[in-house]
Amino acid sequence: MVNIGNDWDELLKDEWEKPYYLTLREFLKVEYSSGVIHPDMNDIFNALRYTAYDDAKIVLLGQDPYHGEGQAHGLCFSVKQGVQKPPSLQNMFKELGAELGIPAPPHGELTEWAKQGVLLLNTCLTVRHGMANSHSGKGWEVLTDRIIQILNEREKPLIFFLWGGSAKQKTRFITNDRHVVLTAAHPSPLSAHNGFFGCGHFKTANEILASRGEEPIKW
């Protein structure tokens, strides 16, 4: 039913036959055939396609895909090249500059992060154009909670970035003390000054990876 193309296929094979997902699938068929839905149908599972389970080093949890024209492409916080960088992403680049002296890139596409092992996962994977959270509560959260549980079970340790209240709620699924959980305010302009700026997560994560003998992320 869903073909991701890496080890996620085996790990999630049972999910596609569960009642919640079959109901979600029927809902999405109607939505995509009757309105403008983001991201493109072929991009929904890009976070899993770009970052295999075994290759993941860092899990960055977003909430809802961008709901503007041409923005969402299946990776949380990321927009395709040529699309204006949203405010939250601009704040992420500001924090990167402050922590590691990295200048803001000319675009907001984070595909290279994903290819290096940063799983850029939204908790809801689709949205109606111009209507934030319009696909919340339809079943996506059941699937993405399961994905977090599967990641929690992994023997190889992970680093979780949980920014904002919604993401922090997922700490209940991260029970293995082998993993590192880093929490902060959301990078949105509404909250970035309340604990996102100065959080040090990008630098801290790379220091942890280096201490484990793993390749740091080229942010």
Provide structural commentary.
- By secondary structure, this protein is an alpha/beta fold.
- 33% of the residues lie in helices and 11% in strands.
- The chain has helices at 8-12, 19-34, 46-50, 87-100, 111-115, 140-152, 165-168, 201-211, and strands at 37-38, 58-62, 118-122, 127-128, 159-163, 180-184.
- The strands form two sheets. It has a four-stranded parallel beta sheet.
- The mean pLDDT is 97.
Please write out the topology.
Layout: H1 8-12, H2 19-34, E1 37-38, H3 46-50, E2 58-62, H4 87-100, H5 111-115, E3 118-122, E4 127-128, H6 140-152, E5 159-163, H7 165-168, E6 180-184, H8 201-211
Parallel strand pairs: 2-3, 2-5, 5-6
Antiparallel strand pairs: 1-4
Percent of residues in β-strands: 5-15%
Distance between the termini: 34 Å
User: What is the CA-based Rg, rounded?
Assistant: 17 Å
Q: How helical, in percent, are the residues?
A: 25-40%
Q: Give the strand line-up of the largest sheet.
A: 3-2-5-6
Extract low-pLDDT stretches.
none
- What is the N-to-C succession of helices and strands? HHEHEHHEEHEHEH
The rough form would be described as globular
Number of helix segments? 8
The largest pleated sheet is described as: 4 strands, parallel
Helix and strand content put the structural class at: alpha/beta
Mean pLDDT: 97
- Would you report the number of β strands? 6
Structure summary:
This protein is 33% helix and 11% strand. It has helices at residues 8-12, 19-34, 46-50, 87-100, 111-115, 140-152, 165-168, 201-211; strands spanning 37-38, 58-62, 118-122, 127-128, 159-163, 180-184.
